Amino acid sequence: MKWFKKMSLLAAASLVAVSTLVGSASAASGLSGKITINGSTALLPLTLQAAKEFQKLNPKVRIAASGKGSVTGPQAVKKGIADIGACDWDASMDVPGFKAFDGQVANKVAVIPFATIVNKNVKVNNLTTEQLKGIYSGKITNWKEVGGDNADIVVITRAFGSGTRVNYQAKALGGGDIVKKDKNYKEVGSSGDMKTAVATTPNAIGYIDLVYVNSDVKAVSFNGVAPTTDNVINGTYKIWAYGYYMTKGQPTGATKAFIEYVQSPKFQQGSLKKLKFIPISAMR
Amino acid sequence: MTPTAQSRKMQGSLAYNKLATAAFYGLGALVLLLIVWLLLTILGKGLPGLTLDFLTKVPEDIDPGGGIGPVLFNSFYILFLSLVVSIPIGVGAGIYMAEYAPENKLTEVLRICVESLSSVPSIVFGMLGLAIFAEYFQIGLTILGGAVSLAFLNLPMLARVTEEAVRAVPHDVKNASYALGMTRFQCIRTVVLPIALQGIITGICLVAGRAFGESAVILLTAGLSTSGEMWDFNLFAPGETLAVHLWYVQSEAIVEDAASIAQRSAAVLVVVVLLINLLFRIPLWINNRKLKR
Amino acid sequence: MSISARPTMPDKSGSLAKPADGRFGRYVRARFADRLFKYYFLFSILALCFVLGLVIFFIGKTALLTFAHISLADFFLSFDWTPENESFGAAGIIVNTLSLTALTLAMAVPVAVGMAVLIAEIAPKWLRNMMRPVLDLLVGIPSIVYGYLGLTVLIPVLRRMSGENLGDGLLAAALVLALMVLPTICRISDEAISMVPKKYREAAYALGSTRLQVTMRVVIPAAGRGIVAAVIMGMTRAIGETMAVVMVIGNTAQLATTLFTPASVLTSNIVMQISNVEFDTTWNYALHMMALLLLAISFLLILLIRYLGRKGSDQT
């Protein structure tokens, strides 16, 4: 029982220490405040990197970031539990499946390209909009119908409402449906799971942010155009979208400064490019 | 029954007994093999790349070579805080159920409540924590919120295990202490708890191990970022833990050595759980030795 | 030691006011501590129930809004879950949850209890001391690691063995879950078996029983209560587990007719979709309803296991 007592004593002592620390943390001049960011997981690497750099420049600003799903972003902003809602589409306008969030301002922060990926055993190198529509609507079920081997197509997709899926459906499938099938169909919860699932499942097809594509999977061309950053910038590769930071009205204070930092040429041309996103200025 | 029939039956029983013993050992060997394989897979991939640097450095999003320093610290900090909240209440509830609760329908309902609580998926506790701390108290994603939400998750398991352990204390020991004129609480403190300690500590180990690896709750309540420095005791700082970081590098991180970071983080998690088990058992061993003397 | 307090009769007639006699003061203190801690323990259990109440209130208030938009029959009897087209039939998912739980327990309980018997009754001391921490270690492996290994190691094996294209489904999920709940069930049963008083065993041995007979007819029935508790703890963990299941079950809302049909269960469905729905939609309400349902299902299963456990112990 002594051990028990010691534990509780230690706990009490540390709590006291902690509360005094908290007390002394506030005060001092300069830009200060607390920014909470929630929303899209696809934008998380960018947000985390930006937060780290921004906090170095403004030590008084405290940034807490988390990610769950695109729609969580604008929703959290609406509820007031986040200052910035990261979202893979412009949530101030209607998109298929989601209504506009009134009174929110969409701040473009990056260009996100997406790619169609297949398992490395698949021989197909190019798919057209019509072929992709056929595959995802369940009309094409065998790879030989699109010029590959005689094997069932295993469709791997993200859950309805995922930012990646919303954009892929709009840009690659021309708004076409992704239909659930009873077999050879699987939904995954994150980009990492998507990559792992496609990489380990023979004859699988999926889609993912271009950033994640590496030698484990094969990215196929879309309507004859290879998914590369250059092709996005020169306008030939069409599957891409802006990433947005949603705010309640025009951003102010620390939030404004943070968004401005993310949009600044220094960040856009530096870290953002290194993270393999495309600077927004490149698309103008 | 003739003597021969009886002895034949005896022999049958003996044969069965041997067979069963062999079967139990076989089962044990299989499970152990499975566990060893599992650990080798996790540790084998992760341990070789483990350096002190990795354990203390700040995570990176662009350049390879990032570490897990702050998230590892947050893991311990949140685990500690959640245990501070949950052990007194969980153990207290277990003692009540075992020692004080009258044998009636109400007690039965209480017990089922405790068990039902343990089936609540962790994500629901996360959502609850988000509603309480981020929406109601407006403090955002914090270590405090994460720790308290995690404590909710720990409670039912602690209560249940404590109840079992306390109930298993032999009645004669308790009766002896009552005969000496002890009050109920004196009896619990000086007789029941020391005997039940082993069971309770098993429970705490299980709970601590699970809490250390929990990601869904923390992701929702303490966030995915750290304050960017080591040794930040601030209760209101965002508190990404190692398990959450593992989830993040496995599912969304872009940095090229993400896979290796994930493997190493998983290895660290397993090693830490092993250490927690050892750490909690040390007082127990000392206690046992004292009792023997 | 504080045993020296003498068994005097409790005196409630205002004697609290004069702490003259040292021994008597100690007695008063002991009475006071006794009272205090009784209320504290009561408070603890009530706090636990309060948390449960909080969960039910928090989920329930959103969940019940479901039925403002769709009928009870639509939710519970329809097998069609396509929320994007306003069909909220959860029947298939509920059935999947029950089959997954049953399958998991069918695999995990015999192995776990067998292991517990081995550890507590048969194994020599060194083996016992080694196996217990090793099993505890399994609990600490994060569920996403289980999920990841399931996805990258188990599923390819299942795919090869079954000839399926995907391999995801109830079987993969049940195997992963069984491994995850194994230590929970095993360690709590082990604890219960170890606590069976020695004299029971000695009496049985004295009657000439073999170890198997002692174990099966004396020890396990005597530890029955604890084993039932262990099974319940294992089951509730299996039912509430999310992160690992999501990675291996396939997440397709349909009735699992075979072991390899990509399917979804209540938890995986909640976790996959909750992050992608808006707050004020029937879809969100229905997901909360599923969480509430999960509680109700585990409540019923606990009652069932308790009933079976009681029946089992009555027979012996």
Automatic annotation (TrEMBL), chain A:
CDD domains: PBP2_phosphate_like_1 (cd13653). Residues 26-265 form the PBP domain. Residues 1-27 form the signal peptide. InterPro entries: PBP_domain (IPR024370), Phos-bd (IPR011862), Phosphate_ABC_transporter (IPR050811). Keywords: Cell membrane, Lipoprotein, Membrane, Palmitate, Phosphate transport, Signal, Transport. Its main location: membrane. Belongs to the PstS family. NCBIfam families: ptsS_2. This is Phosphate-binding protein. It comes from Paenibacillus cookii.
From TrEMBL, chain B:
It is found in: Cell membrane. SUPFAM superfamilies: MetI-like. The chain crosses the membrane at residues 21-43, 76-97, 109-133, 139-159, 191-212, 266-286. Keywords: Cell membrane, Membrane, Transmembrane, Transmembrane helix, Transport. Its main location: membrane. The keyword Membrane applies. InterPro entries: MetI-like, MetI-like_sf, Phosphate_PstA. The keyword Transcription does not apply. Coiled coil: none annotated. Residues 72-280 form the ABC transmembrane type-1 domain. It is a multi-pass membrane protein. Belongs to the binding-protein-dependent transport system permease family. CysTW subfamily. NCBIfam families: 3a0107s02c. This is Phosphate transport system permease protein PstA. It comes from Paenibacillus cookii. The gene is yqgI.
TrEMBL record, chain C:
It is found in: Cell membrane. Pfam families: BPD_transp_1. The keyword Secreted does not apply. It is a multi-pass membrane protein. SUPFAM superfamilies: MetI-like (SSF161098). It comes from the Bacteria. InterPro entries: MetI-like, MetI-like_sf, Phosphate_PstC, Phosphate_Transport_Permease. PROSITE patterns: ABC_TM1. Residues 94-305 form the ABC transmembrane type-1 domain. Gene3D superfamilies: MetI-like. Its main location: membrane. Keywords: Cell membrane, Membrane, Phosphate transport, Transmembrane, Transmembrane helix, Transport. The chain crosses the membrane at residues 39-70, 90-123, 135-158, 170-189, 243-265, 285-308. Part of the binding-protein-dependent transport system for phosphate; probably responsible for the translocation of the substrate across the membrane. Belongs to the binding-protein-dependent transport system permease family. CysTW subfamily. This is Phosphate transport system permease protein.
